[in-house]
Amino acid sequence: MHRNSIIIALLLITFFGSQACKDDDKEIAVYDDTAYVLAHEGFPAPLLAEDNPLTVQGVQLGKMLFYEPLLSGDGTQACADCHRQEHAFTDTARFSIGIRDMEGKRQAMSVFNTAWHNNEFFWDGRAHLLRDQSLLPIQDELEMDETLENVVSKLSDLDSYKNQFVRAFGDDEITTERISLAMEQFMNSIVSNDAPYDRWQRGELELTESEERGRQLFFTEYNPFFPEESGADCAHCHGGFNFANNQYMNNGLDASFTDLGRFDVTADDQDRGRFKVTSLRNIALTAPYMHDGRFTTLEEVIDHYDHGIQVSPSLDQALLATTDTGLMLTDQDKQDLIAFLHTLTDQSLLTNPEYASPF
Fold first, then answer.
1. d(C-alpha 227, C-alpha 209), whole Å
2. Residue 102 CB burial class (10 angstroms; 0-12, 13-18, ≥19)
3. CB of 259 within 8 A of CB of 292?
4. Which of these, 104, 155, 190, 263, could form a disulfide with 272 (CB 3.0-4.6 Å)?
5. 75-78 long-range contacts, Cβ below 8 Å, gap at least 24?
6. Nearest residue to 236 via CA among 221, 249, 214
7. Which CATH superfamily is domain 196-343 in?
8. What string of DSSP letters covers 137-149?
9. Dihedral sign from CA coordinates of 256, 124, 351, 71
10. Is 64 helix (H, G, I), strand (E, B) or coil?
11. CA-wise closest residue to 258 among 274, 276, 273
């Protein structure tokens, strides 16, 4: 009996010792509010929401959610499936296909430099903040077709997410609001500022003759009185460091509208046919073009502005002024413009591991 007692005691010590080792090996998540340093050389500092500062762990959680197919109704589709890093975070399909094999209503917008957007989100601006935008595709029956309650339930079953919510927010409570805040943080962390154009501005390279001529055409205003001095006037709508203007404009795609654009949000007649002006950064990677993806090439886009403007009451006045003569661009002008637009392609964005799937 004495010997048996010793053996039992040794076995118990071994068992409880091994359990203690397992408990020691189990990761204990700890809240970490270390700030995420947003690199934005050449850009002004963004005015981020004071109630949602970027943190390393918040951005990491947002990235996990951005690439998480459990956010969709059947667990097959993530945000990243329609906003692909290799295509500058957009979709090459004219209309993205949701989990029920149905098309969306508009072309997927690119997700980069969102930290500098200050006039709502989506083509029509129906989402006031980026955190609001992040939740709508989840609930859209044409897209991910899931309820927010189900998303919370599915994520709450996973230790990996409960731990990451602890790191990002201080406890493991998973809520719709926290999901939206984390995704807002990740999307605001995606910065595109290292295109050849940016390196040219920093004095690190020279533009080719064609690229430089295209740059001058891009920034020179239309002038019908002196055709030899007239430019393409692109910067009128696509100016500044991000090649956008944070406005909603009617760019003359149609004389009448089946998609009313911004009007559906504001009910203002002047907003009929107006859509958010998008950045031209990475434009060579983000075909098809326009809110409905009607143009497949940059040549088609330039031809539209050169001689395809359709007049309607809400048409931008600067574009209206060009309708009599067009932009008067030669074939060489168009080639040079396209050469310049290619200098806005940021190859580093497409492979930066900071923005890649964490899985």
1. 21
2. middle
3. yes
4. 263
5. 77/143, 77/144
6. 221
7. Cytochrome c-like domain (1.10.760.10)
8. HHH-TTTT---HH
9. negative
10. helix
11. 273
Cα(86)–Cα(91) distance, integer angstroms: 10
pLDDT in tens, the chain (359 residues): 454 554 444 444 444 444 444 344 467 999 999 999 999 999 999 999 999 999 999 999 999 999 999 999 999 999 999 999 999 999 999 999 999 999 999 999 999 999 999 999 999 999 999 999 999 999 999 999 999 999 999 999 999 999 999 999 999 999 999 999 999 999 999 999 999 999 999 999 999 999 999 999 999 999 999 999 999 999 999 999 999 999 999 999 999 999 999 999 999 999 999 999 999 999 999 999 999 999 999 999 999 999 999 999 999 999 999 999 999 999 999 999 999 999 999 999 999 999 999 99
Cα separation, 21 vs 5, in Å, equals 24
The answer to whether domain 56-192 has CATH 1.10.760.10 is yes
Q: Among positive and negative, which fits the CA dihedral 253, 257, 258, 263? A: positive
